[in-house]
Design brief:
Helix content: 10-25%
Strand order of the largest sheet: 2-3-6-9-12-15-17-16
Largest sheet: 8 strands, mixed
Order of helices and strands: EEEEEEEEEEEEEEHEHEEHH
Structural class: mainly beta
Number of strands: 17
Radius of gyration: 20 Å
Shape: globular
Oligomer: single chain
């Protein structure tokens, strides 16, 4: 594998409100090595007005020192889905070099942007920073899934990377901040990450924003309340033998989730998840985001 010290990629996807032939269409797209974007002509029903974009990296991952920058513009009333064909692998760092990935997106009025990738998987000693910035209107719709696994289990790597930082910021069209979130996992700063995580191998964040998401938000909140009630009453047998040191009568559920609303008129919903297995998070996402199918053509994570 040839190591590339620094890569700068500028991708622009622009959708205008005057749709091409009445359909959401890619009107401008530019990508440079080692990033590639596949835009299939049809995903799901031909009646669904949506553009799907699959992000690929040559070599199967992000190398130490790579700097990737993407820009998207989704026009008024248009729908776009950005996803991946597998987990985003971040390879081992060379020295103190940090891999960086930045995404900027503008979501037009009554438009929908759904970012539903597979998880990030950082190799041992990897250093990775990603930042996503969104500009939205009061009636824009946005779905963000941002999640990370503990690493390569088959190689014995669990939370063994040096740095992982993920920032997601959403601003209204007038520049007012609507949602600001940052997660930092750094070896040595707050003790051993693996000790803090214990048996949990996956962390996920889901954001649902906009009037088209209200129905899904209500379903998700009800479902999270139900599964957490069941988890706390009947924790997983696989973890039931492990007792919390502070309270010997407390057990650790194998799957945890929480919900909180944000924004004017509670227009947004934030869901946080911690789980023992990646499969359980996939199942959660598949179930919770299934109502998106009429808008994006197929159920996510099917």
């Amino acid at each position: 594998m040839v190591s590339i010290d620094s890569i700068s990629i500028d991708l622009k996807l622009i959708f205008y409100s005057n749709k091409v032939g009445g359909k959401s269409s890619v009107t401008n797209c530019l990508a440079r090595y080692p990033l590639k974007f596949i835009i299939p002509k049809k995903v799901g029903s031909s009646k669904t007005d949506v553009v799907w974009v699959y992000a690929l990296t040559y070599g199967g991952g992000i190398l130490s020192g790579d700097h990737i920058s993407c820009k998207f513009s989704v026009g008024d009333t248009c729908t776009m889905v950005l996803t991946t064909q597998g987990s985003t692998k971040v390879f081992k760092s060379v020295g103190s070099k940090c891999s960086e990935q930045t995404l900027e997106a503008r979501v037009g009025s009554n438009a929908l942007l759904a970012i539903i990738p597979d998880p990030v998987t950082c190799f041992s000693t990897a250093r990775y920073y990603q930042k996503q910035v969104f500009s939205v209107f009061s009636d824009s719709n946005l779905v963000i899934v941002d999640w990370i696994t503990s690493g390569r289990h088959e190689s014995g790597e669990k939370w063994d990377f040096d740095l992982y930082r993920s920032t997601n910021n959403i601003f209204l069209e007038d520049g007012q901040p609507l949602f600001l979130d940052s997660m930092l996992l750094e070896k040595g700063k707050i003790g051993c990450v693996q000790e803090h995580m214990q048996d949990y191998q996956v962390i996920a964040m889901i954001v649902l924003l906009g009037p088209k998401m209200q129905y899904i938000q209500n379903l998700v909140q009800d479902h999270v309340k139900r599964i957490m009630s069941e988890q706390l009453q009947h924790p997983s047998a696989a973890l039931s033998h492990q007792r919390d040191k502070a309270d010997p009568f407390m057990t650790k559920p194998s799957f945890m989730a929480s919900c909180s609303v944000f924004g004017p008129k509670r227009i947004g919903l934030l869901v946080r998840v911690a789980a023992v297995t990646t499969e359980s998070v996939y199942n959660f996402l598949k179930h919770q985001l299934a109502p998106l199918e009429p808008m994006i053509g197929v159920p996510p994570y099917r």
